Target: Aminopeptidase
Amino acid sequence: MTPPAALRSHHWPTVVLTIAIGTLGGIAAKFAHLPLPMLLGALLAVAAVALIGWKPLGRPVQFPVRLRFWFIPILGVAIGASFTPAILDEVQLWWPSLVALCVFIPLAHFLSFSAVRAMGGLDPVTALFGTAPGGLIETVQMAEERGGDGAMVTVLQFIRVIVTIISVPLFFTWLTGHAVGSAGGATLDRAAFTLADLPWLVAAAVIGAGVGRIIRLPAGFMTGPILCSGLFHLLGYVESAPPALLVQATQLIIGVSLGVRFAGIERHRLRAAALMATVSTAISLALAAVMAFALAPLIDEPRTAVFLAFAPGGLAEMSLIALSMQMSIVYVTAHHAMRIVLAVLAAKFLAKRTL
Model:
């Protein structure tokens, strides 16, 4: 089979070396007891190599984004393994939180946009779509359609995710006294994995990802397998979750795929974007903390879970944190899937009102 052009364009010895750098970073992070070590260690190691401009084998660090999509369904299947009949009863209690999310997203976006505009240096279109608390691909497209700086929006959105996935695990580590996911990223307290479960888990990943893409679910490569795996577990066809080693591999791949995005970014643009994205993300995180204290008593969820559900990180990354902490996984994932949709709708609404 001939590989797609997007894969043929990569220098595979460099890709392998990039993954090796990420792996060494993950191992070092484990020894340092960092939270989510394989994800954060790989991200920091690969990003450091990209930023200093070192070119192993004569090329900058690189990783095919398409390969990430082979691993994301694993995370979806692992989350779906937490579906139990009790979950169906819990969902009915989430409506105050879901309603609050509809208020949180446009409020966080407007406050972040106002703060970044006050800092200066960005045109209104770029500032508006660069501060959206979700929907990276969609916001870049909408910004370019309106004459904004698509490259800067990409950097702002990317740094939003980075700041969130670094600060949230560190905050939880300080709060709980132990590193999030430091024990190896164990998946779920389910039945032990057996080869008899493998066909069902693979089917959940393949069918779920295919259906999710066809019907255009938000983050379909992940949400599709979540729903398919959840259905299989609810029906009793399978009881176990994917092995912890596969979840660790997914952490590694996500970390590497994020780290390589620092390659080629001009230093002055990176510094400016980092400052603005940090301010924007801090506003969203502060609002998420307010939501956590206000909503936790109403929905019978711990404040940490509510905070994580409202934190403006990526769906896969926030779900990994929830998975590592064995904490309200379905609740957190459901809110982040809805956040993506709401963030795009809010961006379109604010664009009509402010641009």
